[in-house]
Write a structure and sequence with these properties.
316 residues; alpha/beta; Oxidized Rhodanese, domain 1; 2 domains; five-stranded parallel sheet; 11 helices
């Protein structure tokens, strides 16, 4: 079993240590990944930022968008892509909800979406994952997010972007190739041969020491293995994805076979969407699914297998 060096961060955690990772030239580093179709560097985005068929998505809270965003960017936040009909938060929005949202934002079916955020591409990866499941593949994540844009002297504005509504439609057939339900997790637990459940949260969440808002209990899914999502990025410096070789060292010994069945989860399926992007796009694993409901949903079912190592305190 791989001795994992845990970085204690979540999408919203701001406790930071020091990073000694040497940052390579952007495009050089990117070229070594298994697939680069869904990642873009700031220097590349500057060349197409005003292209008519490019739509830039600032994935963040509205107040962050107003404080400064890439010129022409549209604002999307988590609540925009969640299904509010459930008794708990975090479930992915329906196709119809996404079609209405994109139509209102003026996004067309032929547009290339460039998504960025301020948390090391964590939220951007959630949107990539959702759209991938619905068969829409024209999405690229800005490596390093808004910080990379600032460092490249990219232009920012506080002015809302003008939009003209469209009639956006997702593909008729949804592959849902990266989606796992609670039933699939239960099935995997009953047959552990060549399968693995990875918890992408922090050490304190995994142990049960901290219970985040929305969950009914502290702890983890039984038999899951912890690999904090933040291990895969230079969280304390440029917030870019680590190199292919560094990522391989983090995941290879825990998931030795590229064909092994893997389900990843976190608190609400956001951080685990990031890990799904890393495993499938950057490293080439081909049997990875993100458990959409994640710990929030799992904790609502008292009889579902759970474990914990610590007395829990609730983290609001």
């Amino acid at each position: 079993m791989l001795l994992i060096c845990i970085v204690m961060f979540s999408c919203n955690d701001k406790e930071k240590g020091k990073s000694t990772i040497e940052v390579k030239e952007p495009i050089e580093e990117r070229s070594s990944y298994f697939n680069t179709n869904h990642i873009i560097e700031a220097i590349e985005l500057k060349k197409i930022v005003r292209a008519s068929n490019t739509k830039i998505i600032h994935f963040g809270k509205p107040e962050e968008y107003v404080a400064g965003h890439i010129v022409g960017a549209l604002n999307i936040w988590r609540t925009d892509i969640e299904d509010a009909s459930y008794n708990y938060k975090g479930i992915m929005a329906s196709k119809l909800q996404i079609e209405k949202l994109f139509s209102r934002l003026g996004i067309s079916n032929n547009d290339m979406l460039i998504v960025y955020d301020s948390v090391a591409s964590c939220d951007a990866a959630r949107l990539w994952w959702l759209l991938k499941n619905y068969g829409f593949n024209k999405v690229k994540i800005l490596n390093g997010g808004i910080e990379a844009w600032k460092k490249s002297n990219g232009e920012l504005t506080t002015t809302n972007s003008k939009v003209t509504s469209t009639k956006f439609k997702l593909p008729t057939i949804s592959p849902m190739s990266l989606y796992a339900s609670k039933e699939e997790v239960l099935k995997m637990l009953s047959n552990s041969k060549n399968s693995l459940i990875i918890d992408t949260r922090t050490t304190n969440e995994f142990s049960g020491k901290r219970q985040k808002n929305g969950a009914q209990f502290g702890g983890r899914i039984s038999n899951s293995v912890l690999i904090d999502w933040a291990n895969s990025v230079n969280y304390n410096s440029d917030q870019k994805f680590k190199s292919y070789s560094e990522l391989l060292k983090i995941y290879k010994k825990t998931i030795p076979n590229q064909n092994d069945a893997v389900i990843v989860y976190c608190h609400s399926g956001v951080r685990s969407a990031h890990t799904t992007f890393v495993l499938t796009e950057l490293l080439g694993y081909n049997n990875v699914k993100n458990y959409d409901g994640s710990w929030i949903e799992w904790s609502h079912f008292k009889n579902y297998p759970k474990e914990k190592d610590s007395i829990t305190s609730i983290l609001k």
